Amino acid sequence: MAVVSSNSTVMNNVEAVRATLYEAMKNDDRTLVLGEDVGARGNVFLITKDFITEFGPERVIDTPIAEASIVGIAVGMAMEGLRPIAEIQFADFIYPSFNQIVGEAAKIRYRSNGEYTCPLVIRTPYGGGVRGALSHSVSVEALFYHVPGLKIVAPSFPADVKGLLNAAIDDPDPVLFLEHKKTYRLIKGEVPNGHYTIPLGKANVLKDGKQLSVVSYGLYVHWALEAALGLEQEGMSVEVIDLRSIRPMDKTTILRSVEKTRKLLIIHEDNKFGGIGAEISAMVAEEALFHLDAPIRRLCGPDVPAMGYALPLEEEFMSSPAEMAEAMREMVKF
Amino acid sequence: MASTDIATGTFERHGLSDEQLREIFRNMLLQRQLDNRGFQLNRQGKVPFALGSEGHEALQAGAAMAFNRGKDILAPYYRDLGLCLGIGLSPYEIMLSIFARAADHNGGRQFPNHYSSKNAGLMSFSSILAAHLPHAVGAAYAIKYRGEEGRAVLATCGDGTTSEGEWHESMNFAAVHKLPFVMLVENNEWAISTPLDKQMAQPEIWKRGAGYGMPGRRFNGFDPLETYAAVKEAMDRARRGGGPALVEGTCYRYLAHSTDDNDMTYRTREEVLEQRRKDPVPAFEALLLEHAIMTAQDVAAMRKDVLRETNEATDAAEALPYPDSTELYTHVYEGAWQPWQS
């Protein structure tokens, strides 16, 4: 970490998660982290490095390898007044805890008529481009965004990681916090010092544009931004929106943009069928169809179970800034 | 009853006063009356569903006596009417659940028997078996983490739930962290229609305690006093910081799984009648009469009082309104809710 001014620090996304968790642990002794290898190992990406020394094994809990109960135990802690932050080591390992997230955490406030609440954060690294193969590279957001009672955040920039993670920790309801692992060390940025939050459900317009709205999140929002900036040289004006939050999702920002540019391209790494893009497309079709000058287009992962380990299988699954630029060109020219 | 030594005419009361023995018996009578009432209301077409605990009365009334109100936490499952009564829920609250009234703790959202009450220390739970056990373990962790002495979590389940992965995960974590957690298994021999021998090759569930590094003990769940002693021993140890325990009470499910089940499709009337001969309610009544803790008149008066209370609770709850349909939309999150932020 390099301090560039007294008001901010340059960090990558790993450092931003770590610094935010550290601050939360420091400020509130109801906060605990639990998960596989979060203690002595300091998490497989070193996000909780040295936490166990500073905060002790009671607050930095190395759990048995049992994802359902990592989440389930955190749910019980939250119901009884603690503020647990559970970690699923890789998003691909979240499936055993699906019921605890969907059937339990998301429904505790509702089913008890508000008597019990579940202020819980579940952090997990997701996404591909790191040779993670079938079980270390999936995107899981579409499996969960269907579920009322959950909130889902997927920040892409270090400053957003901090503000949104703080908001997630403060939130009185369960939040699934998705961290794209390819961005962990790839993406650096200035992070304001001191405590701040960014409200869940607010998208960020990364680049203004007039001819096309691009909505994305995660790693791909960086590539989409790169592509859009490149198209400036060709005289094309593309607006890029970083969703940041998937549930709730920022309808206002999307509609305002689409009504201006009259074209919408949605880009995400998760596969297309039933993905986040489907919901955005449906919303825009319901609310802004007559503002559109072109069919909505989605550039998404293919309909296969996961990206393969072999490089061509990963590369074929993943999109690229060049592919994104080509889709944007076609949309602008439509 | 196992506690009674017929030869000498004495019985082991495990330190329980006459008053407490009568309280146990009243809880047992109340359970049976409320169970019957739920089924009656279903057959009358007044409620869509009911589920009974008949056969579990002694186990639950005895276990509830080992629960410290205002201190301990109960993480029950859906066949725990007597435990929930025993920790302080009223027949009126039970009837609010059966009728799904607005005044119910859950606001009429959950199935009957899925009680929750934060004030009573009763954790909210779903119908998904074993999903509540990690919650119980998390609550026990919170107790230990905050250094709250003299508190423990009593979690319960049936024999069927012991096949779930989260049962194992919860037992293991509780043992690793020596949590104030007691796993009470109510073994009634049936997981809806699946008998024990199709659930597990080794049917003595209590023996699994050793595998987790915690004490295991089995007791006769038809005997409320033996139940009380076993659960109290485990809870006291947990409250003292001695770690978790597995206690298994053997009993039997006299009724079908629920009003929607026909148990004669998978077990015989003879089997049920054979188990009915061990019915814990008349057996405990006989013990109390034999030892002059109650007279026949006392018992008759208590039965009458239990019926009165059940009738009053039924009438009071039935007279109340359902939740307003607008309640469908409340308590999804804190505050107003929209999937789309505008």
Report on the structure:
The complex is a heterodimer of chains A (334) and B (342). With 334 residues, chain A is an alpha/beta fold. Chain A folds into two domains: 2-192, Rossmann fold (3-Layer(aba) Sandwich), CATH 3.40.50; 204-333, Rossmann fold (3-Layer(aba) Sandwich), CATH 3.40.50. In chain A, 37% of the residues lie in helices and 22% in strands. Chain A has 13 helices and 16 strands. In chain A, the strands form three sheets. Chain A has a seven-stranded mixed sheet with strand order 4-3-5-6-8-7-13, sandwiched between helices. Chain A has a five-stranded mixed sheet with strand order 10-12-11-15-16, with helices on both faces. In chain A, helix 10 packs across helix 11 (276-288). The model of chain A has no long low-confidence stretch (mean pLDDT 97). With 342 residues, chain B is an alpha/beta fold. In chain B, the strands form three sheets. Chain B has a five-stranded parallel sheet, sandwiched between helices. In chain B, strands 1-2 form a two-stranded antiparallel sheet. A two-stranded antiparallel sheet of chain B has the order 6-7. The longest helix of chain B is centred in the first third of the chain and has 26 residues, at 18-43. Chain B is globular. In chain B, 51% of the residues are buried. The interface between A and B is large, with 52 and 46 residues. Strand 14 (249-250) of chain A pairs parallel with strand 10 (340-341) of chain B, so a sheet runs across the interface.
